[in-house]
Each structure stands twice: as structure tokens, then as C-alpha cells.
Design goal:
The structure holds 2 protein chains of 2 kinds. Chain A is an all-alpha fold. The longest helix of chain A has 34 residues.
């Protein structure tokens, strides 16, 4: 099973790793005693570790390839993954849903405020993921500047509140509408662009928004940001910090459910079909009577509204915003959620957001290696499951004849 | 009888290359017209100009849909041209591969439906009715094209002949008054070509669409067409009935070839 060629390859890999990590693992400069330590045992560890790691990695890759061939052979038959079987059976699905709902409802009362805050963060990312899902997953427009709409939403609440005293509930729809407007604004210049070029220009747009917010001090107060943004009120009841957090948590749950509802409806509609057709083949979709301009702009605008709402929630939660929270890293984070969770599938996005936010939190035990481990997990996911945790097997229209049982 | 499609002096330049040189063409209602010529003669470019993918350098393209006024096609975007009532298929099949057969045809209905974003989110009774009708109409089209057995199959999994029929079905879903078929018989064996022959006649007679087709299969062209236009190097070199074209020396020289009498 393990041939000589494999061993040779793994040996070369281990040599390469030993060379690569030499400066980090072997040499250690001790500034206190002003001397250099040579930790040769680390090199041996790296060598042996990478040798076996490479063997295992190759073995798993081979197994995946063989699994793929088997899968292609039986694709003609029933496509029943475990997931589909779970969702097809109504009773199991409803039972699972009830359990999940009960858990989410009880969460803030069972866990500490710290955990609730993490969950609030995760929920905001779920909203962002669902929004970008429309643009990237459904319409196939690679948007790397999605954080711009997030920033627009947050700043519109902060600024409207600062200048006009606008309260939270009014700011929510206004923030969403402003983001939608900015979505159309971004959409116009990029109408003719595809693929990589679209990605670069949207990335530029995201950066432009951040730079404007950072440098136009008169408008956005620059890097010092805007503070004292009020939390959402509830009939004038004075809430403590903890109660406020719980309120925001449940508000977000409602918003996320609303998002899921709307995105589902959009997917299974005339406009959803137009988006998917546009993603598959732009020329053919135009030949079938779909207005490419209108469809693209609608995708950008509708995708941006959710980012806007998430932005307003973010501002309300942290009560202080500044441009540093809206870097391109956020955009990439959101994109990772969609790619990791499964492009186009709503449940996949939810899992992806939970994984991406909760994993680094729970990996804190590994302290300095935590981001390394996180990156490693991402890479492994992409190699072995490029479709995401839950690949989007879209629920296509299953036509049922009336006379069938 | 007034032509329903009239193309005058259509010229298309790509930089220094003149792909179409002052081509005239007219089509009358209920006709089957064929556009033939060697590869590179400009036939697909002609289709692309008419359907709005390329804006022509010169020339006028007008259509008169049955029962409506004259409409000028110059400057219309491709989706508008489809809305006017010209539907086309592609030389290399351009289906939507990860959508099912039914969904492919449903996309074709897009320009004849009305629901927008509000309708999609709120799903009032009018939208629900429209969606149900879309599924029914699409299924009926599939039945007419003998594709109902593939209804829930992904388009990329279909056999080649079925994919070609699906493209035609999708084009028919847009409710056209004229169907532009770009090499519909490419890659089909003789019996499939005979089926295509019968299908095109059925479309013309039962669905009342006029047909303009580009084709290289001469047997199919001669048996189907009412009139034939021949282009070579972008210029129209002949037009007429199949009999006239068969014996036209210019056409024989440029394209058909002649038998060598021993």
C-alpha cells in the first residue's frame, strides 16, 4: 500500500519542512543572556512529524479521489445523502427544529453574558453570510467589498442618531435602505465586469468606503469613531447591560429568521431563477429575455440590505464604531463563511458562521497556535470538502404528476 | 405578403474584418428560411446582429410581429429582442447545466411573467397562480418536445440529442413568433436528423412559428426550406427556392461542390 515512491516523496517533504521552519523552530535568540540557542531537537521533531503527516495526507487524498469516482458512478441513482434523508422526513425535521429552537431560546439564560455576546457576534455574521450568499452564491458575482455595505449600515445609524437623534427602530429600515442604495451604486460601474476583475473592483469599493470614513473627519469623525450609540429600547424600559444583551440576542434571532425567510422566498421565485441562470451562462440568460442589468443590480441591492441591517445591529451592540472594524479582512471573513459552509445553502451558511466565530473562541486554549490551527482547518476543509460543510443541493422544482401516488 | 422580418444592407465590421457585407434578407410569415454558406461566412454573426449581441456597423433590421406594428431591432438589447418575439438557439449548446430540465424551460418563461421582488417575498395569490402556471406551461412544452421523461434531470446529464431539443424547448418557452435555429442538426445521426425535420415542421404548423435556420446538413435544408439564402465571405451570393439554389453555379462553386462526371 505504501510504495517506495510515496516514502521518497514524504521524505522530501520532511526535508523541505525542516528547511522552512529552520529559522523559527531551531534558532532562538535569547536577548536576556545575549546569546543564540540552537534547538536541534526541534528540527528532528519537525522532520519526523512532517514525514508522517505527508504520508497520512496523501493517503486521505487518494481515498477522496476514489470516493469521488464511486460517487460519479452512482450519481445517476438516488441522491440521498444523510442530510437529505433528514430533511425529507417531516417528523424528524420538525423534531430537530423544535430542539434547536428550544436551545436557542434558552441559551442566554443558561450561559453567561460573555457567551451570549459571542453568540450575538455569530448571529450578526450569519446575517452577513446570508446576504453575501445572494450576491456570490445565487447570482455568481464575486463581491470582495461586501464590508462596505456593513459599514454603511453601521455609520448611518450612528450618524443619524448623532445629528438627528434617530432612534434604533427607525434606523433599522433606513440603514437597510441606505445600504441597498449603495449596493446599486456599486453595481453600476461593475456591470460589464466578470470574474477576477469584478472581484478587484468590488475590493476597491470596500476600501474606498473605509478610507472615506477614516479620512473625512468632518463627516464621520475619522479614526476616533462615534461613541455612545444607544442600544435598542423597548417601550422605554430601563435595561441593565445584561438585559440589554439578552434583548439584542432575541432581536437578532428574529432578524435572522426574517432573513432566512426572505432569502428562501427569493430563491424559489422568478428573480431567483434569473439569478441562477445569470450565474450559469450570462449570454444564454440574456437570450432568454432576462435583463442582465436589472438582475445584477437587484442582486447587489438585495444582498446589501442585509449587510446594512447587520451593520445597524453591530453599532447598537458595541455602542462604538470606528473604521477599523470594517477592513477588508471582514469581507474575507464573510466570504470564508459562505465558502466553508457551502455556497448557496442557507443551513451551510449558518454552520459556517458558527464555525468561523465560535472555533477561534473555543480554540483560545491553544493560545498562540490558535490562528495557525484555524488556518489549517480551513485549508483541510477546502481540500477534502470543497463544496462546504453542507453542499448546496438546491431544492430544485420536483415535478409531480397528479396521477402519481 | 409583407415580410415579418426585413434586414437591409446589414454590415458588420470587427476592426478591419468585414464579417457581413451589405446582406439583405426577408422572411414571410410561416416560412422556413435557411441561411447557408461555408464556415466563416458570417451566418452566426448575422444571428448575433439580429438578436442584439453585436450592434451592426450599418444596416436596418425591422420586424413586424403578427398583429403588431413594425419594430426596429437596431440598438435593442438581447433580452428586449427576445421580448419582441425572436428566440434563438446556439451553435454550441448553452443550457444552464446545474438547473433541471424543467427549470431551464421555466427560465425561458421569464420575460412573459410579471412578478417582481415584492411578489417573490410576499407571495400574494397572483404570484402563486403565476408560478403554478409557469410550471404547467413548461411541462406542456416539454411534452410537445418529447422531453417529459427528463423533467427532473439536471440538464448537464442529458444525452446530446435531448440537450439540443431542450434548447429548442427553452427558446419556445419565450413565446416567439420566429425561431432562429443555429445548426440544430450538428452532431445528430441520420435518424435523429429525420426526427428534427419532423419536429421543425411540427413547430411551424402547430405552434405557428416562422423558422430561420443556419444549417450545413444539405439534405435537411433542401427538404425543409421554402427559401434559401447563401452567404460567402460575408456577402449574399444567392437566394431562392431549393431548386434554384441547387443549380446556381455561384453556390455550387462556393459551397455545394459539383459531381465530377467521369
Amino acid at each position: 500500500m505504501i510504495s517506495l515512491a510515496e516514502i521518497k516523496k514524504s521524505f522530501l517533504v520532511s526535508l523541505w519542512f525542516m528547511f522552512l521552519t529552520f529559522p523559527i523552530m531551531v534558532i532562538r535568540v535569547n536577548t536576556i543572556y545575549k546569546r543564540v540557542e540552537w534547538r536541534w531537537e526541534n528540527m528532528l521533531l519537525v522532520g519526523i512529524g512532517s514525514f508522517f503527516f505527508s504520508l497520512i495526507w496523501r493517503y486521505l487524498l487518494r481515498r477522496k479521489e476514489m470516493g469521488r469516482k464511486k460517487e460519479l458512478a452512482e450519481e445517476a441513482g438516488d441522491r440521498f445523502t444523510l442530510w437529505q434523508r433528514l430533511t425529507e422526513d417531516r417528523r424528524i425535521f420538525l423534531l430537530a427544529l423544535a430542539v434547536v429552537l428550544a436551545f436557542t431560546a434558552a441559551y442566554p439564560f443558561v450561559f453567561s453574558m460573555y457567551q451570549t455576546n459571542i453568540m450575538i457576534s455569530a448571529l450578526i455574521y450569519i446575517m452577513l453570510g446570508l446576504g453575501i450568499n445572494i450576491v456570490v452564491g445565487l447570482a455568481g458575482l464575486l463581491d470582495l467589498g461586501y464590508v462596505a455595505f456593513y459599514a454603511v449600515g453601521a455609520y448611518s445609524y450612528a450618524l443619524l442618531n448623532y445629528h438627528f437623534g434617530l432612534n434604533f427602530w427607525l434606523a433599522l429600515p433606513i440603514g437597510a435602505a441606505t445600504s441597498a442604495f449603495f449596493g446599486i451604486l456599486l453595481g453600476y460601474p461593475v456591470l460589464r465586469l466578470r470574474g477576477d476583475y469584478l472581484a478587484i473592483v468590488t475590493l476597491g469599493f470596500g476600501e474606498i468606503i473605509r478610507l472615506i470614513l477614516e479620512n473625512w473627519n468632518a463627516f464621520s469623525f475619522g479614526p476616533s469613531g462615534i461613541a455612545n450609540i444607544p442600544r435598542p429600547w423597548f417601550f422605554g424600559i430601563k435595561m441593565s447591560l445584561e438585559q440589554s444583551s439578552i434583548f439584542i440576542y432575541f432581536l437578532l434571532i428574529v432578524l435572522v429568521m426574517f432573513t432566512i425567510f426572505v432569502v428562501n422566498r427569493l430563491k424559489d421565485s422568478r428573480i431567483g431563477r434569473a439569478w441562477i441562470a445569470m450565474r450559469e451562462d450570462e449570454v444564454a440568460c440574456q437570450a432568454m429575455g432576462i435583463d442582465r442589468t436589472k438582475t445584477k443590480l437587484t442582486a447587489f441591492a438585495l444582498g446589501a440590505t442585509w449587510a446594512g441591517m447587520a451593520g445597524v445591529m453591530f453599532a447598537a451592540k458595541t455602542t462604538f464604531i470606528n473604521p477599523a472594524s470594517f477592513t477588508i479582512w471582514e469581507s474575507i471573513n464573510v466570504l470564508c463563511i459562505v465558502v466553508l459552509g457551502g455556497m448557496g445553502s442557507i443551513l451551510g451558511v449558518i454552520f459556517g458562521a458558527l464555525a468561523l466565530i465560535l472555533l477561534p473562541e473555543y480554540l483560545r486554549a491553544f493560545s498562540e497556535y490558535r490562528m495557525l490551527l484555524f488556518g489549517f482547518i480551513l485549508v483541510t476543509m477546502m481540500v477534502f470538502r470543497p463544496g462546504g460543510i453542507i453542499s448546496a443541493t438546491r431544492r430544485t422544482y420536483k415535478f409531480k404528476r397528479l396521477d402519481e401516488p | 405578403m409583407e415580410p415579418i422580418v426585413e434586414v437591409n444592407r446589414l454590415t458588420m465590421d470587427f476592426g478591419g474584418l468585414r464579417a457581413l457585407d451589405s446582406v439583405d434578407l426577408d422572411i414571410r410569415k410561416g416560412e422556413i428560411v435557411a441561411l447557408i454558406g461555408p464556415n466563416g461566412a458570417g451566418k452566426t454573426t448575422f444571428f448575433n446582429c439580429i438578436t442584439g449581441i453585436y450592434p451592426p456597423t450599418e444596416g436596418e433590421m425591422t420586424v413586424r410581429p403578427p398583429g403588431k406594428n413594425k419594430i426596429r431591432l437596431n440598438g435593442l438589447k438581447p433580452n428586449k429582442v427576445t421580448e419582441v418575439g425572436l428566440a434563438r438557439t446556439f451553435q454550441n449548446i448553452r443550457l444552464f447545466p446545474s438547473m433541471t430540465v424543467l427549470e431551464n424551460v421555466m427560465v425561458g418563461r421569464h420575460c412573459r411573467l410579471k412578478s417582481g421582488i415584492a411578489g417573490a417575498i410576499l407571495r400574494p395569490p397572483s404570484t402563486r397562480k403565476e408560478e403554478r402556471k409557469v410550471v404547467d406551461d413548461s411541462y406542456r412544452i416539454l411534452e410537445k418536445m418529447d422531453l417529459e421523461n427528463f423533467v427532473n434531470e439536471y440538464a448537464k446529464n442529458l444525452p446530446y440529442g435531448a440537450q439540443r431539443r431542450l434548447e429548442i424547448a427553452r427558446a419556445m418557452a419565450t413565446d416567439p413568433f420566429i425561431l432562429l435555429l443555429d445548426e440544430p442538426a450538428a452532431g445528430l445521426n441520420p435518424s435523429e436528423t429525420d426526427e428534427l425535420d419532423a419536429l421543425i415542421l411540427k413547430l411551424r404548423d402547430q405552434e405557428e412559428v416562422t423558422i430561420l435556420l443556419i444549417e450545413h446538413d444539405m439534405k435537411l435544408v433542401m427538404s425543409l426550406s421554402d427559401r434559401i439564402f447563401v452567404v460567402d465571405y460575408g456577402k449574399k451570393i444567392a437566394q431562392g427556392t431549393p431548386e434554384e439554389i441547387k443549380n446556381n453555379p455561384a453556390v455550387i462553386k462556393a459551397y455545394l461542390g459539383e459531381e465530377i462526371d467521369a
